[in-house]
């Protein structure tokens, strides 16, 4: 009996030594990545947070001084910032919902077996591969009221409009025009993420459901959606993060137009055009906080559904 107990203790000791050795090896591999992450992400974040508490301004003869939370107090009463915040959140909600819905539909189609599926998957990457500034300028030309293809089709070919519309200049169509560009460009990325998640679902589950008499809708709601939740969360986080810091689509399409400023273009305006580093850093910190709030909400919602 005592011999058996001694062997068990010895095995537990050996297992503990091995676990500590694996932990040391893991930290040895992780440490360089953590150092790089701290240097390229954490340090700029802390520096931006510090600058947001000062009145630093490029080219100013006065030395920068600590002003506490005054930049944030001013931010809370800044009408341009609040308009940019509302526009950015509205844009993010619309685009993320559309991209998830369309991306899921495309992923389900591509998950089926058909001839030429590989070519279709490769072709889907074309919008994603084009630089955003280039694709946005391309769409801007297509939206043009004089030589744009949309007005040519809607007015001259189909006769649906009596006169051309300046899609990017008219306040009623400016936001939908930007939404369409973003959805066109990033839906393939969402579809590929969800397709990867779909291919991890065991086919045996669908066969068992079919044997039990489940309909396609029941299989989708009770097998596909629950097992696709991790991929949906990844797609949701990535796209929300991108949509909330959208810059190039709005900057190329609208420049510095006041009614079409997003948080990122407004921060660029303050930091580059006005050179107010302190206040611009406060705007940048606000963008970070807005993104953090959205991510925490997503994680909390998904964790609640899992429990």
Into which percent range does the helicity of residues fall? over 70%
Q: Find the count of extended strands (DSSP E, 2+ residues).
A: 0
Shape: flat
**H/E element string?**
HHHHHHHHHHHHH
Secondary-structure-derived class = mainly alpha
* Rg value: 26 Å
What oligomeric assembly is this protein in? Answer: single chain
Could you give a short account of the major beta sheet? none
Low-confidence stretches: none
Structure annotation, total helices: 13
Work out the strand percent: under 5%
Mean of pLDDT: 89
Cα(first) to Cα(last) distance is: 43 Å
Description:
The protein has 307 residues and is an all-alpha fold. The protein has 13 helices and no strands. The radius of gyration is 26 Å and the shape is flat. The mean pLDDT is 89. Keywords: Cell membrane, Membrane, Transmembrane, Transmembrane helix, Transport. It is found in: Cell membrane. Belongs to the binding-protein-dependent transport system permease family.
